[in-house]
User: Fold this.
Amino acid sequence: MMHKHISTALSAALIALAMLAAPASRAAAQTVGADAEIAALITLKDEALVDDRVVRLGDLFEGIADPALAETAVARAPSPGATVDIGARWLLAVARAHDLTWQPRSRYDRITLRRASHRIGTEQIEAALRVALADRGVSGQLELALDNPSLELQLPSSNEPSLAVTGLSLDSASGRFVAHVIAPANGEPVARASVTGRAVMLTDVPVLRRDLRPGDVIRASDIEWIAMPANRLTRGTVSSQDLLLGMSPRRPIRSQQLIRATDLQTPVVVAKNSLVTIRLQTQRMQLTVQGRALENGAQGDVIRVMNTKSNSVVNAVVIDTGNVVVTPTASAQSN
Assistant:
């Protein structure tokens, strides 16, 4: 009987202990659940754009409730315009150091971090160089050829995207130059570079729009103007449209090709071996007879022609297509 009483008392004690422990177990479960919920709220960003010189926790993670904690600096930002990838190991170390309940899903978790910047490219650099060259008296049409055509400067987004040339050295004979540039143009320089290259003066010259062959006559519609480096022009280069109009190529001339005076001739209007009408003119009479041209002739040229009836050869002036005239002047030129 007494044994039964002790057993009943022990059972009651165990039930009481279980009832006391139950709230503690529920509390522990609630704490774990709360931690899991908090951990789920803090997530890693896929990428971030940083405007400042430092990287902050809020740049890396979403869901940080404390604004002051989110503003905590954890690393130096990359150079303006640069991009870096940050891996899971470093991110986990940062999270633990600042009591963030974040865990990487795998060792491949990472974030791409890019520093915001203002880009000063080749176009802006060349524009500043043209101004500096003009101040040195080098103006007009200029072709700038930079030794490093991909040169660019990156400025922090907090700086104005301006540029200044602080030094310029120019060889006027070759066009070679060395310049020093800084950015921004005003205040403390953040970026600087040396720029080398060549400045070449350009000159407008007339060229052909299409390929022409000997016998073709150059007309205004065949001509266009292009800018060419002045150092490519020679003393014989044709620089006037008037010297082209009405002329004919002495040899084939391709479109866009520089034309020399020796490439041109007066158009042939009487071809060698072609039949022509020979006119004999004096103060008292005018006679015509058929002849054969023994050489090519342009308008105004004196050529040799043969009388097809008498086979005599005379010099005659080419008047136009198929017509030549024998005059005392032409006869004098034959002697």
